Amino acid sequence: xxxxxxxxxxxxxxxxxxxxxxxxxxxxxxxxxxxxxxxxxxxxxxxxxxxxxxxxxxxxxxxxxxxxxxxxxxxxxxxxxxxxxxxxxxxxxxxxxxxxxxxxxxxxxxxxxxxxxxxxxxxxxxxxxxxxxxxxxxxxxxxxxxxxxxxxxxxxxxxxxxxxxxxxxxxxxxxxxxxxxxxxxxxxxxxxxxxxxxxxxxxxxxxxxxxxxxxxxxxxxxxxxxxxxxxxxxxxxxxxxxxxxxxxxxxxxxxxxxxx
Length: 260
Prior knowledge:
Helix content is about 35%, strand content about 25%. Strand 3 (about 45) and strand 4 form a beta hairpin. It has helices spanning about 25-35, 95-105, 125-145, 160-170, 185-190, 215-220, 235-250; strands at about 5, 20-25, 45, 50-60, 65-75, 80-90, 110-115, 150-155, 155-160, 170-175, 200-205, 225-230. It is an alpha/beta fold. Helix 2 runs parallel beside helix 3 (about 125-145) and helix 5 runs parallel beside helix 7.
């Protein structure tokens, strides 16, 4: 069984070397000791959320602190091709379910999208709280999946902002039930076109439960997006994104591969 993972914050492990001791404090330490009931002698991973992972043995545990002796410190690189889920805001927490599951499956970043047909609206103080909630959901899912990287929840966009993101992306795919080309075909053709220097990003765009409006499809395709069919069935907004992440990960050779 893999070791449980706890997050320490970006930069917290920068000066650590094997054999040294690291003390985790705050809510993560309390969770490790009072909920997970970790005790001296047990193995644990501590990640900084930005690629560094400490593997070590618990040497002391209290409700406020967890001290671990570092046996190994590794740096996990970001993939050359990053998968970004553009998730339209949806009612009933279906959007949160989508980003939670996509995080466990390996998404690298998330963009909340307030589309024309989104019933939910992020405005003013609510927008800040909702964004923080999504980041919390993503962090918890990354911990569950034993990830060393916490996916970034980027600033929410309306359709004009998404048009700009599409124009800057290396590939942007709208998951749409009226598309002709299968998503796998689109991804395989793009991936076979050859490597390009530097990191690249694929946007996987999912609409709300009411679907993406024809006007939005036209605007996004005008910025360079392509439409693709995910499968024979029309999936919910909470399911389409995670399904696309699995398929894209398979095409890119990420799905089922050992961690870097």
